[in-house]
Amino acid sequence: MNGFSYIPDDDEIKREKNKARELRASQWWKRKCAKGICYYCNNSFPAKELTMDHIVPIARGGKSTKNNVAPCCKTCNTEKKSKLLMEWKPISKSNKTE
Ligand SMILES: [Zn+2]
């Protein structure tokens, strides 16, 4: 057993997703996105292109708290999916192929 083997049930996932929706509507979140920096790759993006990502994914037992959500770009969000940070490294500016 380790701390990351926890699988939340459907109700918990639903609850955390609802909380995420509330957080996304908050001034706190808007201020974070206004900076326009992706939490993972550190590139800058227009605020509207940043999405909310759970650093520890809900599906892996993460919560919708201010400590566990970060603005991230679509690329990082797609790449990361439900991985944990220890399982995934963002594409940094220097070796981005695009
Ligand atoms: Zn990114």
Query: Roughly what percent helix?
Result: 25-40%
Q: Element order, helices and strands?
A: HHEEH
Question: Which structural class should the secondary elements be placed in?
Answer: alpha+beta
What is the CA-CA span between the terminal residues? 40 Å
Determine the strand fraction and express it as a percent band. Answer: 5-15%
Could you tell me which ligands this complex binds, including any ions or cofactors? zinc ion
Mean pLDDT: 87
By DSSP (H or I, 4+ residues per run), the number of helices equals 3
- What composes the largest sheet? 2 strands, antiparallel
Strand order of the largest sheet: 1-2
Strands, total number: 2
The residue ranges in which pLDDT falls below 50 over 5 or more consecutive positions are none
CATH architecture: Orthogonal Bundle
What is the count of structural domains? 1
Radius of gyration: 14 Å
